[in-house]
Amino acid sequence: MNNLLNFLSNTSDEAQIFLFSGILFVCWNIETIAGLTLGYKRWNHASLNAKFILSNIPIQFLLGFAFTKVIQYTGNHQFGLLYHLPYMNNKLILFIASFILLDLGEFIYHVLMHKFKRLWMFHVVHHTDNIVDVSTTLREHPGENIIRNLMTLAWIFLGGVVFWALLLRQLIQIVSNIFSHINYRLPEKLDKIVGCVFITPNLHHVHHHFQQPYTDCNYGDVLSIWDRLFGTFKRLPFKDVLYGVDTYMDKKENSNYFYLLKIPFGKYKKRS
C-alpha cells in the first residue's frame, strides 16, 4: 500500500494521463467490436469532443495550483472533517471515507448543475451529444470545468482530503467516467449486480436520454447508491433511449464547437 501511495505521489500527472489514454484505447476498441450505435462518423465525432481538451487544459493547469495550496493548508492545520473522525490513522479507512465524501460531493454538484438554470446552460453542452460514446467524456464546457473543479476544491477543503487519497480517487473516477459513457451495454443480469453499487453504461445511458424525467436521474459519478438513497434511480431499455436533450436536438448545431461554447451565454430554453 505504501509503495503504491509513494508511486502515485511522485507520478501524479503521468499516472492520470497514462490511465486515461489506456482506458480510452480499450473502450474505443470495445466500441469498434461491439458498439451499440452504428453508422456514425466516429472520428469526426471524437474530433469535435476532443476540442474541449484544448479549452480545458489551461483551466486544469491553473486550478492545479489552488488544489496544491488548499491541500497544504488543510494538512498543515489539520483542518477538515476527516481529521476529526475516528480511525483516520488507518490508510484504508481514510481512503474509503475520502472516496465516499468526494463521490457524494460529485453527486450534489451534478444535481445542482441540472436544477439551476444558468448552471444547466453550462452542463447542457455535455448533454447535447446526440451519440454517447467514450469521446463524450471529453465534452465539457470550460465554464463547467471551472465550476466542477471549484466545487471539488470546496469539498477537499471542508473534508481535509489528503493528496494521495484525492489522486487515487481521481484515477478510479477516470476509469468509471470513460466506461459509463462507452457505446456498449453490460448484459442485463450482470448490470443488475454491478449497478447495485456502481454507475454502469446501462445506467448512465438513461441519464443521457433526451427527455425528463430520465435526464434528471442516475446522477451518480462512480457510485449508484446516492441515486437509490435520494430517489433519482431509474432504468430504461436501450431501445427506448434517444440521446441528446429536447431543447437542443439540431445535429448540425450540436456538431459546431463554437456554437456549443456560446450556449451558456444565450437564452435559457425550458425543458419539456
Q: Percent of residues in beta strands?
A: under 5%
Mean pLDDT: 89
How far the N terminus sits from the C terminus, by CA atoms, comes to 50 Å
Gross morphology is globular
What letter string, H or E per element, gives the SSE order? Answer: HHHHHHHHHHHH
User: Which value, in Å, is the CA radius of gyration?
Assistant: 19 Å
Q: In this structure, how is the largest beta sheet organized?
A: none
Number of beta strands: 0
Secondary structure tally, helices: 12
Helical amount among residues, as a percent range?
Answer: 55-70%
Low-confidence stretches: none
Describe this protein with a few key phrases:
single chain; mainly alpha; 272 residues; 12 helices
Describe the structure.
- This protein has 272 residues and is mainly α.
- It has a domain at 19-31 and 40-185 and 256-264.
- It has helices at residues 2-10, 12-34, 42-77, 91-115, 117-127, 142-159, 163-180, 188-194, 201-207, 225-230, 251-254, 257-262.
- Helix 3 runs parallel beside helix 6 and helix 4 packs across helix 7 (163-180).
- It starts with a helix and ends in a 10-residue tail after the last helix.
- 32% of the residues are buried.
